[in-house]
Known about the structure:
Helix 2 (about 20-30) packs antiparallel against helix 3 (about 35-50) and helix 13 packs parallel to helix 15 (about 240-250). The chain is mainly alpha-helical. About 40% of the residues are buried. It starts with a helix and ends with a helix. It is built from 19 helices and no strands. The radius of gyration is 29 Å and the shape is elongated.
Amino acid sequence: MDVKELIETGESHRRRKAFSAAVESFSRALELEPKNPLALRGLADAYRGLRDYPGCIRAMERFLAEKPRDVSALVRMADAQKRMKNREEALRFYQQALQMSPDNRHALMGLGDLHYHEKNLEKALDYWEPLLKLDPGLVTLQTMVGNIHRKQLRFAQARDAFQAALQNEPANPYAIFGMADALRGLGEFEQAAPYWRIMLKLDPENQQVMSRAGDCFLRLGILEEAEALFRKSLTLRFEKPAARGLARTYLRMGSPDKAVECLRALLDRNPDDTQTALLLADTLAETSGTESARAFLQQELERRPDTRELEKALSRLA
């Protein structure tokens, strides 16, 4: 076979994912024409299909020697370098691709992914948010961007990202959870409640969903549902947010004795939890009087002196 036939055969093998056969065909073509760009690109792609990234890099280096301004080749080289954990090389090739084609979606995705896996989340957003403007249909990326904003407490930006994801996929559970939690972070509890109800149906045994939905319902005064969710959560595993939420629910329901019981159990498990100690002191003041609350705070300060929040609380009671 001549070079053209060998390349066509290699492409046929590659399309059928017979990558080893494709490597053989492209290699034979290159024996006849060592600089043939179609054979070099095909060989690189065949090696990539085999996940032989060193082979892919070698073939792509030969291709780029002939076609140094081929943007798609630069991106594929960057991808292969990233797979080999050659960070600086991957960064260099991605940036070269973007210099030639600032809107190249694969380069934007690759650079964002590179920084994301290095926990450099803000830098990842520098590439992913422009990519979403070019292609707003990338639902998985929208949820990832939303989660970055949510974890950084930028709840308005998170809400917008999850809203865009839900416009594309209304039933996407990651976007529904993110939307519920972003609205909760914004204090928009009425708007958050329907999303939490959907999540409780989609993932009824998820403790985080139970606790956060319970908190939302508590703030809305839907106390029976909040109590049921916190109690169910605690049957799965003792968890601070659920225990504290249950105590607050009992206070709202007019059952301070039950709240004290919850808070003491929580403090037994987390003896240095100052916020729980303060809440327990307030509850004791309401249920048993100021002296009981003062005695409790003095006992806590003997155990861990110089805790400023406890000192201030005791001073207020005095």
